[in-house]
Amino acid sequence: MSRYDYGVFVGRFQPLHAGHETVVRAALEKVDKLIVLIGSARQARDPRNPFTHAEREDMFAKVFKHEIATGRLILAPVADHPYSDAAWCAEVQRTVNEIVLDDYNRSGVVLHGLKDISIALAGYGKDRTSYYLKLFPEWGNIQLDSQYGTFSSTDVRKQLFQRIPQISHSVLSDEVAEWLEAFSLSPIFRGLLEEAEYLEAYPKEWGRGPFVTVDAVVIQSGNILLVERGQAPGEGLLALPGGFLDPRESIRDAAIRELKEETAISDHKGAIPPAMLASFIDGSKTRVFDHPDRSLRGRIITHAFLFRLPERRELFSVTGGDDARSASWHRLGDLRPEQFFEDHWSIIDVMADL
Predict the structure, then answer these.
(1) What is the rounded distance in angstroms from the CA atom of residue 180 to the CA atom of residue 133?
(2) Engineered SS bond to 245: which of 28, 96, 160, 212, CB 3.0-4.6 Å?
(3) Read out DSSP for 44-89?
(4) Is the Cα dihedral 347, 41, 95, 3 positive or negative?
(5) pLDDT (tens digit, 9 = 90+) per residue, 301-311?
(6) Alpha-carbon distance 354 to 348, whole Å?
(7) 84-88 contacts: CB < 8 A, separation 24 or more?
């Protein structure tokens, strides 16, 4: 008889490698069923998160076909919440609760809560799962004594994103290695490789920071003003109007300047002057976003300003400028996290109270 009814294993699996597989197999020896939560599930592709949630599910399906078919291994996505451990924790809890309740209900046993269900978090005792355990004290603990090997997914990606990709069969199952070999021949891979090369060269030219930037969260009548990035990194992704602080300007003035340069925001009288734009800023919502991993370019700390424009049927006119390919209004309810550059979706989520 298993010690736990369910295990939970959280990871990004970018890509799935032998270390991950070891945790899965070890956990399956101690639980009836293992729930694998695939993190960063709704991120835009970049060299750190190159594979979509569906693609990582496909990797699992190739390696653990029997376990998935028999229902012993259950896969589910979870999003990143870099500025709220509570929001991330709540999403994990809700996802696990829904999976367990649905699993029992399909078997004919109706549950209304998880009081009598035993759940444990699986992972390595000295990696980030030790931190996760503090967020889920109600769950048990299935920890392996030592890390499998000396490599990580970062090492696999570093070898992959080269002009002549290296795919190591010693740390990847044959199924995943074959998947990556096919991926390396795709147009998506070529775009990611170009971005990886850009990001590798960036600190050599500009340093690693810390740098100070500004972003404008501009809301009007249920719409948000966004730009489409016109160059790497994140070419083609949606972003907030913003940019780097000039040496002799205030942070607020920088946000207004970048907003005007990248969107040419205007009303029926013409370009809106800086003083009027400043009057739209909700000072109570100004916030610093400083997650250490928010940008692959280096240590970039941004200051976000919420601009609340007057409600009206005809939105202010905008035109893309500077390094923005285009600028346009978007209904807040139509947007998806995977459309956005870096952490801009998370900034909107926090600033606009979505």
Answers:
(1) 32
(2) 212
(3) PP-SSS-S-HHHHHHHHHHHSHHHHHTTSEEEEE----TT-HHHHH
(4) negative
(5) 999 999 999 99
(6) 8
(7) 84/350, 85/135
